[in-house]
Amino acid sequence: MKVKTILVSQPEPNTEKSPYTRLKEKHNLKIDFRPFIHVEGVTAKDVRTQKIDFSNYDTIILTSRNSVDHFFRLAEEMRFKVPDTLKYFCQSEAVAYYLQKYVVYRKRKIYVGERSLNDLEATFKKFKDDKYLLPTSDILKPTIPNFLDSLNIQWDRAQLYRTVVSDLSDLRDVYYDVLVFFSPSGIESLVTNFPDFEQNNTRIAVYGNTTVKAAEKAKLRIDIKAPTDDTPSMTMALEKYVTAQK
To answer: By C-alpha distance, which of 4, 2, 6, 1 is closest to 181?
Structure first.
Protein backbone atom coordinates (compact mmCIF):
# COMPACT_ATOMS: atom_id res chain seq x y z
CA MET A 1 0.00 0.00 0.00
CA LYS A 2 1.30 3.42 -1.00
CA VAL A 3 2.62 5.66 1.78
CA LYS A 4 1.45 9.28 1.84
CA THR A 5 1.60 10.27 5.52
CA ILE A 6 4.14 9.60 8.29
CA LEU A 7 4.11 10.55 11.98
CA VAL A 8 7.49 10.59 13.72
CA SER A 9 7.23 10.30 17.52
CA GLN A 10 10.00 12.82 18.15
CA PRO A 11 10.40 16.62 18.11
CA GLU A 12 10.81 18.17 14.68
CA PRO A 13 14.47 18.60 13.68
CA ASN A 14 15.55 22.22 13.97
CA THR A 15 17.43 22.22 10.71
CA GLU A 16 16.25 22.55 7.12
CA LYS A 17 18.88 20.02 6.06
CA SER A 18 17.20 17.20 7.96
CA PRO A 19 17.08 13.91 6.00
CA TYR A 20 13.33 13.94 6.68
CA THR A 21 13.05 17.10 4.57
CA ARG A 22 14.75 15.40 1.65
CA LEU A 23 12.56 12.32 2.08
CA LYS A 24 9.43 14.46 2.19
CA GLU A 25 10.32 16.42 -0.94
CA LYS A 26 11.60 13.46 -2.95
CA HIS A 27 8.48 11.34 -2.40
CA ASN A 28 5.89 14.09 -1.90
CA LEU A 29 5.07 12.90 1.63
CA LYS A 30 3.32 14.53 4.55
CA ILE A 31 5.65 14.05 7.52
CA ASP A 32 4.59 15.32 10.94
CA PHE A 33 6.53 15.27 14.20
CA ARG A 34 5.02 14.82 17.65
CA PRO A 35 6.89 13.77 20.81
CA PHE A 36 5.07 10.82 22.39
CA ILE A 37 7.04 11.31 25.62
CA HIS A 38 8.52 14.30 27.43
CA VAL A 39 10.80 14.99 30.35
CA GLU A 40 9.72 16.46 33.68
CA GLY A 41 12.13 17.54 36.40
CA VAL A 42 11.91 16.19 39.92
CA THR A 43 11.81 18.51 42.94
CA ALA A 44 14.51 19.32 45.47
CA LYS A 45 12.53 17.23 47.96
CA ASP A 46 12.78 14.23 45.61
CA VAL A 47 16.55 14.67 45.46
CA ARG A 48 16.86 14.82 49.23
CA THR A 49 14.76 11.67 49.49
CA GLN A 50 17.45 9.96 47.41
CA LYS A 51 19.98 11.16 50.04
CA ILE A 52 21.90 13.11 47.41
CA ASP A 53 23.92 16.13 48.54
CA PHE A 54 25.60 17.89 45.59
CA SER A 55 28.35 19.22 47.87
CA ASN A 56 29.66 15.67 48.42
CA TYR A 57 30.88 15.25 44.84
CA ASP A 58 34.06 16.23 43.02
CA THR A 59 32.89 15.33 39.51
CA ILE A 60 29.61 15.37 37.59
CA ILE A 61 29.09 12.86 34.77
CA LEU A 62 26.89 14.40 32.06
CA THR A 63 25.38 12.18 29.39
CA SER A 64 22.77 14.47 27.80
CA ARG A 65 21.46 18.02 27.60
CA ASN A 66 18.68 17.04 29.99
CA SER A 67 21.22 15.97 32.60
CA VAL A 68 22.94 19.36 32.25
CA ASP A 69 19.72 21.36 32.50
CA HIS A 70 18.32 19.53 35.48
CA PHE A 71 21.55 19.46 37.46
CA PHE A 72 21.87 23.23 37.27
CA ARG A 73 18.14 23.76 37.76
CA LEU A 74 18.19 21.80 40.99
CA ALA A 75 21.47 23.35 42.12
CA GLU A 76 19.76 26.72 41.93
CA GLU A 77 16.56 25.44 43.54
CA MET A 78 18.57 23.93 46.41
CA ARG A 79 20.74 27.06 46.70
CA PHE A 80 23.86 25.07 46.00
CA LYS A 81 26.63 27.28 44.64
CA VAL A 82 28.37 25.16 42.03
CA PRO A 83 32.10 25.40 42.87
CA ASP A 84 34.63 26.40 40.21
CA THR A 85 36.66 23.33 41.16
CA LEU A 86 33.93 20.90 40.09
CA LYS A 87 35.00 18.61 37.24
CA TYR A 88 32.69 17.70 34.35
CA PHE A 89 32.95 14.42 32.44
CA CYS A 90 30.87 14.79 29.26
CA GLN A 91 29.78 11.85 27.16
CA SER A 92 30.16 13.78 23.88
CA GLU A 93 31.24 17.09 22.39
CA ALA A 94 27.58 18.05 21.96
CA VAL A 95 26.99 17.74 25.71
CA ALA A 96 30.21 19.60 26.52
CA TYR A 97 29.27 22.41 24.14
CA TYR A 98 25.83 22.67 25.73
CA LEU A 99 27.47 22.96 29.15
CA GLN A 100 28.63 26.44 28.11
CA LYS A 101 25.07 27.58 28.74
CA TYR A 102 25.87 27.39 32.46
CA VAL A 103 29.63 27.68 32.93
CA VAL A 104 32.55 29.62 31.47
CA TYR A 105 34.09 26.78 29.50
CA ARG A 106 37.74 27.88 29.60
CA LYS A 107 37.67 28.29 33.38
CA ARG A 108 36.40 24.78 34.18
CA LYS A 109 37.86 21.28 34.19
CA ILE A 110 35.89 19.62 31.41
CA TYR A 111 36.74 16.21 29.95
CA VAL A 112 35.04 14.97 26.80
CA GLY A 113 34.61 11.51 25.29
CA GLU A 114 34.93 11.27 21.52
CA ARG A 115 31.96 8.93 21.22
CA SER A 116 31.13 7.69 24.71
CA LEU A 117 32.18 7.78 28.35
CA ASN A 118 34.36 4.73 27.71
CA ASP A 119 36.79 7.03 25.89
CA LEU A 120 37.45 8.69 29.26
CA GLU A 121 38.50 5.51 31.05
CA ALA A 122 42.08 6.70 31.56
CA THR A 123 40.83 10.04 32.91
CA PHE A 124 38.49 8.30 35.36
CA LYS A 125 41.43 6.29 36.63
CA LYS A 126 43.53 9.45 36.93
CA PHE A 127 40.93 10.78 39.37
CA LYS A 128 40.13 7.43 40.97
CA ASP A 129 39.69 8.97 44.43
CA ASP A 130 37.02 11.45 43.31
CA LYS A 131 33.37 11.01 44.19
CA TYR A 132 31.27 11.02 41.03
CA LEU A 133 27.63 11.96 40.54
CA LEU A 134 25.64 10.67 37.57
CA PRO A 135 22.44 12.73 36.95
CA THR A 136 19.88 10.62 35.05
CA SER A 137 16.22 10.18 34.29
CA ASP A 138 14.18 7.39 35.83
CA ILE A 139 15.08 5.27 32.79
CA LEU A 140 18.72 4.24 32.51
CA LYS A 141 20.24 1.53 30.36
CA PRO A 142 22.73 -0.65 32.28
CA THR A 143 25.64 0.19 29.95
CA ILE A 144 26.87 3.25 31.86
CA PRO A 145 26.42 1.83 35.40
CA ASN A 146 28.23 -1.34 34.34
CA PHE A 147 31.10 0.71 32.93
CA LEU A 148 31.39 2.85 36.06
CA ASP A 149 31.30 -0.23 38.29
CA SER A 150 34.12 -1.77 36.29
CA LEU A 151 36.35 1.21 37.14
CA ASN A 152 36.07 0.60 40.90
CA ILE A 153 35.33 4.26 41.58
CA GLN A 154 32.93 5.89 44.03
CA TRP A 155 29.84 7.01 42.18
CA ASP A 156 26.16 7.63 42.84
CA ARG A 157 23.18 7.96 40.58
CA ALA A 158 20.80 10.88 41.05
CA GLN A 159 17.41 10.73 39.31
CA LEU A 160 16.86 14.40 38.52
CA TYR A 161 14.17 14.06 35.84
CA ARG A 162 11.72 11.49 34.59
CA THR A 163 10.29 10.39 31.27
CA VAL A 164 6.54 10.94 31.11
CA VAL A 165 3.89 9.85 28.62
CA SER A 166 2.57 12.86 26.66
CA ASP A 167 -1.13 13.56 26.20
CA LEU A 168 -1.98 12.59 22.61
CA SER A 169 -5.78 12.75 22.90
CA ASP A 170 -5.97 15.26 20.03
CA LEU A 171 -4.64 12.55 17.69
CA ARG A 172 -7.43 10.10 18.44
CA ASP A 173 -9.20 10.66 15.12
CA VAL A 174 -6.08 11.39 13.07
CA TYR A 175 -4.65 8.59 10.98
CA TYR A 176 -1.22 8.11 9.41
CA ASP A 177 0.10 5.47 7.04
CA VAL A 178 3.28 5.04 9.11
CA LEU A 179 4.03 5.61 12.81
CA VAL A 180 7.74 5.87 13.67
CA PHE A 181 9.13 4.91 17.11
CA PHE A 182 12.61 5.21 18.60
CA SER A 183 12.16 3.93 22.15
CA PRO A 184 10.09 1.55 24.29
CA SER A 185 8.68 4.66 26.00
CA GLY A 186 7.18 5.78 22.69
CA ILE A 187 5.43 2.43 22.33
CA GLU A 188 4.22 2.70 25.93
CA SER A 189 2.80 6.14 25.15
CA LEU A 190 0.84 4.79 22.18
CA VAL A 191 -0.65 1.98 24.27
CA THR A 192 -1.40 4.28 27.22
CA ASN A 193 -3.05 6.98 25.12
CA PHE A 194 -4.92 4.57 22.88
CA PRO A 195 -5.56 1.30 24.75
CA ASP A 196 -8.06 0.32 22.03
CA PHE A 197 -5.60 1.01 19.20
CA GLU A 198 -6.15 -1.27 16.20
CA GLN A 199 -3.27 -1.33 13.76
CA ASN A 200 -5.18 -2.39 10.64
CA ASN A 201 -3.33 -0.80 7.68
CA THR A 202 -1.09 1.42 9.80
CA ARG A 203 2.55 0.54 9.29
CA ILE A 204 4.85 0.56 12.35
CA ALA A 205 8.51 1.59 12.00
CA VAL A 206 10.88 0.94 14.91
CA TYR A 207 14.49 1.82 15.66
CA GLY A 208 16.64 -0.40 17.88
CA ASN A 209 16.27 -3.81 19.47
CA THR A 210 14.63 -2.59 22.68
CA THR A 211 11.97 -0.78 20.66
CA VAL A 212 11.38 -3.92 18.60
CA LYS A 213 10.83 -5.94 21.79
CA ALA A 214 8.42 -3.32 23.17
CA ALA A 215 6.43 -3.31 19.93
CA GLU A 216 6.26 -7.11 19.90
CA LYS A 217 5.14 -7.13 23.53
CA ALA A 218 2.37 -4.69 22.60
CA LYS A 219 1.39 -7.12 19.82
CA LEU A 220 2.09 -4.62 17.07
CA ARG A 221 2.99 -5.74 13.56
CA ILE A 222 6.42 -4.33 12.68
CA ASP A 223 6.74 -3.35 9.02
CA ILE A 224 9.94 -1.28 9.05
CA LYS A 225 13.10 -1.85 11.12
CA ALA A 226 16.31 0.10 11.56
CA PRO A 227 19.20 -0.05 11.84
CA THR A 228 20.07 -2.84 9.43
CA ASP A 229 23.15 -3.45 7.29
CA ASP A 230 21.60 -1.75 4.26
CA THR A 231 19.50 0.83 6.14
CA PRO A 232 21.55 2.12 9.09
CA SER A 233 19.24 5.10 9.67
CA MET A 234 15.48 5.38 10.08
CA THR A 235 15.13 7.74 7.10
CA MET A 236 16.93 5.23 4.88
CA ALA A 237 14.63 2.45 6.09
CA LEU A 238 11.58 4.62 5.44
CA GLU A 239 12.77 5.54 1.98
CA LYS A 240 13.37 1.92 1.06
CA TYR A 241 9.89 0.98 2.22
CA VAL A 242 8.14 3.97 0.61
CA THR A 243 9.87 3.24 -2.70
CA ALA A 244 8.88 -0.43 -2.60
CA GLN A 245 5.22 0.47 -2.00
CA LYS A 246 4.88 2.75 -5.04
So the answer is: 6
